[in-house]
Amino acid sequence: MSMLEGAQSHSRLFGPYGVLLVAKARLLRKPLQIAVKVDGIANPVYLRLRTTDVSLFEEIIVRSEYYFESAKPLQLIVDAGANIGMTSVFFANLFPQARIIAVEPEASNFEMLQKNAAPYSNIQAVLGALWKENVALSLSDPGTGSWGFQTRERTAGDGPSGIVGGMTVDNLMAQFGCDYIDVLKMDIEGSEKEVFETCEPWIDKVGMIIVELHDRSRNGCSRSAYAATKDFELQWCKGETTFFARKEYVAAQQPGGAGSGIAPFAAKTSRRRPRILSVMS
Hints:
Layout: H1 3-28, E1 33-37, E2 45-48, H2 53-62, E3 76-80, H3 86-94, E4 99-104, H4 107-117, E5 123-127, E6 129-130, E7 136-140, E8 150-153, E9 163-167, H5 169-175, E10 181-186, H6 192-197, E11 206-212, H7 221-228, E12 234-238, E13 241-245, H8 264-269, E14 275-280
Parallel strand pairs: 3-4, 3-10, 4-5, 6-9, 10-11
Antiparallel strand pairs: 1-2, 1-14, 7-8, 7-9, 11-13, 12-13
Helix pairs in contact: 2-3
């Protein structure tokens, strides 16, 4: 992000102190981490200044982008493209009874995911990426920052670096002894196209899908998602996120959809400015 965008984001969330910390990190030319506490989230979360971590925190924790009201107890949530764990932490607080499997392919993000997930016994972090096959993949940064790493099939010219294990949804379920996924969240930077195109072995074993579609970077993402979820009775959008649900999982109208008000959890978490508890270099 630019200097102006970074200052605006940190000022909006953390006030003048946040701007000063960004300036300090820039002057020192070294990474700084902050521990942040916000209403509605049981434990502090850790963010890297001058990265997309702060934007993710604002979108997922403060604005409650993934909030929905479940009509039944949730047993298993899969968070694919978990990044630093904001969605997993959000769901661990919203649905404390649910087991959460958080899948992230990039090593530095995964390290932060482990740190943020550590206080929650129901979150299990997995280094890997969802894909159409169980094969090694190449991982690359297209220049969008720490939230935009993409995976693709390896070619003969690929070197030994940037390798991550790809896995199918049904393989992930088998590894963890899961018969059914209540909620499958995917923010996997275009790989949803391949995952949805090969969904026949597992799609009937999922109750709800929450996905950010990336047609801007890979044609056919939306087409494959809508084809795969044709038997899901409910669908709505909130921001850049699309929700597909079987009718037994949610009410017909969800907070954030057309005509609805602010979700109670969103109102609770945005009541006060997040508080910076500590700074680490």
